[in-house]
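BUG-245 | component: ligand-complex export | severity: low

The export step for NDP jobs runs without errors, but we want the raw record kept on the ticket for reference. Input record follows.
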Amino acid sequence: MSGIHGKVIAITGASSGIGEATAVYLAEKGARLVLGARREGRLNAVVDSITAKGGTATGLVVDVTRREDLQRLTRTALSQYGRLDVLVSNAGTMAVSPFDELRQDDWDAMVATHITGLLNGIGAALPVFRRQGSGQFVNVASTAAYVVKSPQGVYAATKAAVKVLTEGLRQESGPDLRVTLVSPGFTNTEGVGKGAGPEVAAALTEQRDAIAMPPCAVASAIGYAIEQPEGVDVSEIVVRPTAQA
Ligand code: NDP
């Protein structure tokens, strides 16, 4: 199966930002979607706006740090649509801070969301892909996986882990599966600086408002990786605003 039309695609973190834009983009191209996030109201609004335009989407309250939630996400794809073609692991938190602030709950959340959350998705989808003899992982990292900038040490470390895990998975995936890393730069979403201290949040949102690209730029990069023919693996995409150093 190549292209996007008819594919069954699960997306984590689909209640806002890049995940929402990706859901809308893929629905317009005829994908059948299973969308996960924690904020039920926001998620339902995304599902409703897609279905109102004739698209196909189901929403599920999912916390990626919980293994069972990812199992439920893949089970729902199978029970509703009979298969799962792509898992987009996008859920993330950008509550960055200087180490001296000792915001250890935020450190834990980034580790749990980006690393454990990604592994929970792999654990849930890999057996399905193996049984089907096809499937694609699309993992959302960040330009922070390539360059660390203060005060993003913990965030960058977890996104570097996403990059490393994705390459390890790609090497083991064999000829039937596809594994793609998508690393966005500054993107105009509500998540930039969310949960960070006031000074850091203000600096990040100022930078975002000055240079960020729209989330649909990342959505179309994800779509490009998905729409390639079987046997063609777009392994890595870095997409950033031209103004980003
Ligand atoms: P948003 O805050 O808009 O989106 C983050 C999404 O992740 C939300 O839908 C949120 O939904 C979901 N989420 C967070 N934690 C969990 C969890 N534990 N379980 C399930 N869902 C969760 O920000 P972005 O769209 O910008 O971020 C999306 C991804 O892109 C992240 O991985 C981020 O690190 C990455 N990224 C963003 C960049 C940017 O500049 N915006 C740059 C580089 C990478 P809910 O709260 O409802 O659960």
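Assignee comment: Attached the raw record above. The longest helix spans residues 104-132.
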